Amino acid sequence: MAVTADPCWVDGERSSQLPLPDRGLAFGDGVFETLLLVNGAAMLLAYHEERLQSGLERLGIAATRPLLAATVEQAAGESPAGYAALRVTVTRGTGPRGYAPPPAPSARVIVQLSPLQHDPYAWREPLAIDYSSVRLGRQPQLAGIKHLNRLEQVLAAAECAREGWGEALMLDESGRVVSAVAGNLFLVRGGDLLTPALDGCGVAGTRRRAVIERWAPALGLAVEECAIDGEVVQQADEVFICNSLQGLRAVGVCRKRRWSDFPVTRALLDVARQEMDGMVQA
């Protein structure tokens, strides 16, 4: 059914207020997932659940398993027809003043549901991007998980808005490309795919995983996770970015390099769309 306002839940109860203190607000002490809902059905739910649990384990936060399935079931009743974004945030909850986690924390779950105005798996105009001046700090203990500390992305997104870029590529301290501001990066080179290794920083996206494990193999494409610098991006045959709400989005311009033909990106998008349609019909 249609909704007139974006509903929120805190620990399973409908609410627009966050109990304080909360370590997620104070320290970014927690993780989150942003799921795509199609007519109330969550896409790639298992991938999101596995990443969420990995992040919680990495931070030492105990939470109910499987957490996302119950959350999706609750939100589905108020999800609009078509496409919606479901953000699920899990913090360490309340605690005493100071950085040290409480000895027996109680995880807090915050859920936000918002309609989407676009079809994530329809072909859209290729992006014009550039390289952000904001560097990602390397921290192997947090690499891959979707933790709440996103100030680097906030600063990079502000730079995108100032410069009029559709997206930006973010580099680490050594100058290697890690990802886009809000998505993972893939390059097409000689019929294979390259994507940055995420051993030092960056988020291991659910769509990145789907490309590597399902969509590229369906087309007979090999995927290599490796170190990538800016020159490799400029030499690519195609470039695309992916995330849960944007699907796969081709890059048309990056500095002086322009791309106008995207056969591999289009083929991957078709495979992804077929799979998403199958999930909705199941």
Task: Please give a handful of descriptors for the protein shown.
alpha+beta, 6-stranded antiparallel sheet, folate biosynthesis, 15 strands, D-amino Acid Aminotransferase, Chain A, domain 1, 282 residues, Class-IV_PLP-Dep_Aminotrnsfr, Aminotrans_IV, D-amino Acid Aminotransferase, Chain A, domain 2, 9-stranded mixed sheet
Structure description:
The protein has seven helices and 15 strands. It is of the alpha+beta class and 282 residues long. The longest helix has 19 residues, at 263-281.
What's the Cα radius of gyration? 19 Å
- Number of DSSP helical runs: 7
The CATH superfamily of the largest domain bears the name: D-amino Acid Aminotransferase, subunit A, domain 2
Shape: globular
Multimer state: single chain
Question: Per CATH, what is the topology of the largest domain?
Answer: D-amino Acid Aminotransferase, Chain A, domain 2
Any idea of the CATH class of the largest domain? Alpha Beta
Main beta sheet strand tally, sense and closure: 9 strands, mixed
Instruction: Work out the number of β strands.
Output: 15
Strand content: 25-35%
Overall average pLDDT: 94
Helical coverage, percent range: 25-40%
The chain-level structural class is alpha+beta
Tell me the number of structural domains.
2
Architecture per CATH nomenclature, i.e. the level-2 architecture of the largest domain: Alpha-Beta Barrel
Q: Give the terminus-to-terminus CA distance.
A: 20 Å
Question: What's the order of the H and E elements?
Answer: EEHEEHHEEEHEEEEHEHEEEH
**Residue ranges: pLDDT <50 for 5 or more in a row?**
none
